[in-house]
Amino acid sequence: MGESTDAVVVGAGVIGSSIALELARSGLRVVVVDKFGGAGNGSTSASSAVVRFTYPTIAGVTAAWESRHCWEAWRDHLQAPAGEPLAAFHRCGVTLLDVDFAPCGMFTRHFDKIGVPYEKWDAQELSERLPAVDVGRYFPPRPVDDDEFFADASARLGALHTPDGGFVDDPQLAARNLAAAAQRHGAAFRWRTEVTAVMRYGGRVRGVRLDEGTELSAGVVVNAAGPWSRQLNRLAEVGSDFSVGLRPLRQEVHHVAAPAGYHDVGRQAPVLADMDLGTYIRPEGGEFLLVGGTEPECDPLEWLDDPDDGSPFPTVSQFRTQVTRAARRLPGLGVPNRPRGVAGVYDVTDDWTPVYDRTELAGFYVAIGTSGNQFKNAPLVGRLMTTLIHGVESGHDHDRSALTHTCEHTGRTIDLGAFSRRRRGTATTGTVLG
Fold it and tell me: Does residue 103 contact residue 139 with C-beta atoms inside 8 Å?
């Protein structure tokens, strides 16, 4: 039994759903295949959904700044009807503590070119703006059982504050919003379905075979399968010319009560990015916080061979580690005995920069390595991939001369070569910051 379409997108997370929307808007017939029962049920649902602009590359900052405009005008971006419930962007600001490992200048040199507003706070101003925050310098991050963890501060920290940053309150709903918009443009979704084979003929993709036996014929297949993307690449027999590797990584985000008075009346505290202690702290409503990690060298990372092996439940050890670090930064924060939060499996490249590219198999494209730091860019990623796909399918040699995308809101141009599968020597922090 066979069916025909123009493009198959594998994965209906926030990235895959955005790609489906933009491809459908461009006039293609699109079918999305996902192993779960709805949009955003995979790693998207475990995202902290922070919207920040602190990337060490000009392409990263440009993409994040453009995407912020999409989140600000989310209903317009989706062309959603008035009554449709939507995820909401909370502009609470993002405060990045200034550490030698990722100094403010790494980011502000790009902010100045692009026009991202920012403020530099010295230790005194940081203390006045965020009185609940301990401004001590404790770098490098250490295990919480290390005797040096509670050593006195060696200095005082300033910060880089971007007032236009913030977070999206419901990442799974955001993915569903994108999927609903894609459906309004004719895209079809196949739930609880897995790809068992990538079909090819004469050096070109010709579709996929599904676990229930259906063959979907298509001239374009997009791998947006998140932590399962490496498995799909193997089915397609692509990856031999990749210079960056990717692996599934299990991560946890923890949920705790905010210290009394941490959020001012009527105003949420900013997202706090703390690479000095190896943690980040994000508001969750008016009374709670989400706490995650920034992959400090002292912490073992939980790499997985099979993403299905990742437990969805937070562990006592990681909860204690992350929340204790957060409590070091916020002395009024309590550390509960029972862990509460979510765990998910990320799709991570060696340099924490995604791959948005074609592959050596004509017609087979990838939007992979996106987990952990690309949720914020999801509205734009669909447009980047649509520019890429239409350009390459029209005969452009993207490997020889990288395509560019002009952003709708900011007018800035993004060199898609920055996300090449063949890139080398990308200057990144080697962490979730990118």
Answer: no
> Which tokens in the block code for residue 338?
């029972």
Is residue 283 within 8 Å of residue 271, measured between CB atoms? Answer: yes
Cα radius of gyration rounded to whole Å, the chain: 21
HSE, side-chain direction, 13 A CA sphere, residue 356: 32
Spatial separation of the C-alpha atoms in residues 257 and 96, rounded to whole Å: 21
Rounded to whole angstroms, the Cα distance separating 61 from 111 reads: 7
Considering the entire predicted model, what is its pTM? 0.96
Lowest mean pLDDT among 171-180, 330-339, 424-433: 424-433
C-beta atoms surrounding 112 within 10 Å:
10
pLDDT tens-place string over residues 315-355: 999 999 999 999 999 999 999 989 999 999 999 999 999 99
Q: ∠32-38-39 over CA atoms, to 5°? A: 65
Amino acid at 182: A
Are the beta carbons of 378 and 18 closer than 8 angstroms? yes
